[in-house]
Amino acid sequence: MLSSMSNVLVATCQSISDNLLCLLVLLLSILRSRKYLNRHLWDDEGPAGEDNRTLQSAGQRDEAGKAKAED
């Protein structure tokens, strides 16, 4: 009787630890994929893969050139 209860307890603990391990791996993979997506898709690229940093600096240069031309 005690032996079978012990076996059930051990099996339950192993099942719980397996499930927790699977959840941890899933969580880490989700966080990693979000980090990858944020860094490579939405960080500095526009909708067509244009680099917003380049476009923004080009726009600033154009505005600075217009301001100098007006002076």
Structural notes for this entry:
By secondary structure, the protein is mainly α. It is rod-shaped, with a radius of gyration of 28 Å. Helix content is 85%, strand content 0%. The chain has one domain.
Count of DSSP H/I helices: 2
- Mean pLDDT rating: 71
- Give me the count of strands: 0
Q: Distance between the terminal alpha carbons, to the nearest Å?
A: 95 Å
Task: Summarize the model shown.
Residues 42-71 are annotated as: Disordered. Residues 60-71 have a biased composition (Basic and acidic residues). With 71 residues, the protein is mainly α.
Itemize the secondary structure elements and their pairings.
Elements lengths: L1 H41 L9 H19 L1
Provide keyphrases for this structure:
rod-shaped; 85% helix; 2 helices; 0% strand; 71 residues; mainly alpha
